[in-house]
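Example record used in the benchmark description.
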Amino acid sequence: MPRGRMLDKEAISQSRKLSELSNDTARLVYTWLLAHLDSEGRFSADPAIIKGVVFPRIKNMTLSKIEKSLIEIADSELIILYGADGDKYLQFIKFKNFQTHLDREAPSKIPAPNDEENTNSGVNPIKSDLVPLREENIREENISCPQTPKSPNPLHLEIFNYWNNKKIITHKALTDLMIGKINSKLNAGYTEDDIKQAIHCYSEIVKGEEYWFTYKWTLDEFLQRGFEKFKDPDIALNNYLKENKEKEKK
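Model output (structure tokens):
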């Protein structure tokens, strides 16, 4: 990664998409990330890593604000959010169009978006011991899953394998956290078929070229944050159509 990043000033000042972001926090996340991108315009999309590397001294830049900003920036088609082997990454769209001297930089070590070979190859350029614990998530897990079982039953494995077969983000092992999230949905009255239906709908949307939603969750993240959005396929498939979003903008 270079010590500095050259940028065409008009790409920022005259960007319509950047100006249409809902707040200055999202614009700050976008512009401050620029200095940390590699030669392909990629960086970690883990809010905890972005907080520690990009905003170490900005106390009011919380993990929640970073995460919401990333999703909005991706929805505005300024970046791509994706996963590879359980890690989250981002790539700036049209990054090379306004960069110079990229030939002097080291090649990117981060897998490319939609690269199935990299996604399943075990490439993990982010050291797990550098990712700080997210305290708000720990508190939430303790509340929603106080008695997470350590041994999965056939139903847990069935849902886990169904998720992996969709190849959104492929997991190597079924964790206690995933089991707890599955149980929370079952305890809320949802069935195995309900969970599979939501996973299938999410897979169709995140992979479909006609849909604008591209953010890839892990299984436990999907059950916590995405399930409600995708549990009704008729509503979700309509909500995330690119053509409908363009109509709303007009």
